User: What shape does this take?
Amino acid sequence: MRTPDMFRALRHHNYRLWAGADFLSVAGTWMQVLGVNWLLLSITGSATSLGFGLFLQSLPTLLLAFAGGCLADRLPARPLLLTTQFLHGLLAAVLAVIALTGAGSVWPIYAVALLGGVVSALDGPALGRFGAEVVGPEDLPNALALGSVISSGGRILGMGAAGVLIPVAGTGTLFVLNALSFAVIIVAICRMRAGEMHPLPRAAAEKVGIAAGLRYIGGTRWLLILLGLALVLGALGRNYQVTMAAMSDGPLGAGAAGYGLLSVVFAAGAVVGGLYAASRRDLTFPLLFAAAALTGVGQVLSGVMPGLLSFALMLLPIAAGAVVLDTAVSTRAQLGTAPEMRGRVLAAQSMVGAASGAVGGPLLGVLCDTLGPRTALVGAGVACSVVTVVAAAALARTLGHRLPAVLSGGEKAGESSALSPACR
Assistant: This one.
C-alpha cells in the first residue's frame, strides 16, 4: 500500500523507528519538565526558583552549541548519540533518586539541570544531522514537518500524563519514565539499518572547528538573513507562553483555566501547521515569508480581540504559521548549506532559538507589565511584520531578484540560487 505523500518520510524503515522513539522521548521530556518545576516549587514555594532552573538548562546552549556542532561535523553520529542519550537517561535516573529519597535542597536539582543542558548543547546538532541521514535530502522537508507534529503530540501527551501522575505517583515516577524513554531511543538507533542510511560527508581537517564554521556562516549572506529573521520573530512572536498568561490574567479575565485552554489551542494550531508543512513537496522562500507575515499580522489582530474565544481563534493560524515558518527556515538552512557544515549550521539555529527565548521572554514580560498585554502584542506584531518585509527585501537583493519575484515564487531560479555557492 502506497504511503500518502503527506507522510512520505514514513516510507523509510529507519525514520519509522526514529519517529516512534522521538514521540516517546518528547513526552518523557515534558513529563520531566513539569516534574522538575513542581519539585522545585514544592521545596522553595517560589516561582523564581523555576526561572533559575530554566536559565541553568538553557545557558549551555548559548555557550557550547558551536562545540556540539563541531563534534557533529567531525564524528560519526550514531556512537555520539548513543553516548549522549545514555547520559540523558542517567541524569533522569539521578533526578528520580533525588525525588524518591525526599529532596531537601534545590542544589542537586540545579546541578542535574545544568549537566542536562550541557549534554543537550553537545548533542543537539548531532540529532539534527542524524535525522537528515535517516531520510535523505528528498524527504527531509517532510521529515522536519512531521517532526513538529510529533513534538506537539508528545508535548500534549507528556503534559497531560504529568498532570495525572504527579498527584497519584509523585514526581519521581515521571523521572523514571523519562529515563526509560531514552532507553527506547538507544534501542531504535541500534535497530536502524545501516544500508538504508544517507550519510553526510564529514568535515575535512581544514574545515574543522568553530572558526571555520563562523567564517562559513558569516559568508553565507542569505543564511544570516534567515537567522536574523528567526531571532527577531522568535523573540517577539514566539514567546506566547508569556503573552497568553498576561492576556488571560488581565484583559480577558479568564484566569488559570483560560490559560490552559489557550495552551491547548496553541498546541492544536501547531499540529495543523505541521501537517500542512508535511503536505508540501517543497518548503520554499515564498512560503516561508508568507508564514512570517501571517504570524506577524495575526499577532497584531490578536491584541485587539475582545474576548477569550476570539483570542483563541486567532491563536490557531498564528501557531500554524509559526510551525510552517520554523520548518521552512530549518529546511532551507539544511538543504542550502554544505553538508560538512551541517552540524555547525544547526548549532547556530539552536543558539538563535535559545537567545530569542532568553531575550524575548523577559522583554515581552516587561512590555506587558508597563504597556499592557494588548499594546505589547500589537507593538510586537507590528515589529515582526516590518522585519519580515525588510528580510524579504534583503533576501531578494542577495539572490539578485526583485522583491515580487522572490515573494511570488514565480521564478524557480530564486530557489536554486539559494542553494548555490554564488550567494554565499
Q: What stands out?
A: Confidence is low (pLDDT under 50) at residues 402-424. Residues 1-200 form a domain with the Growth Hormone; Chain: A; fold (CATH 1.20.1250.20).
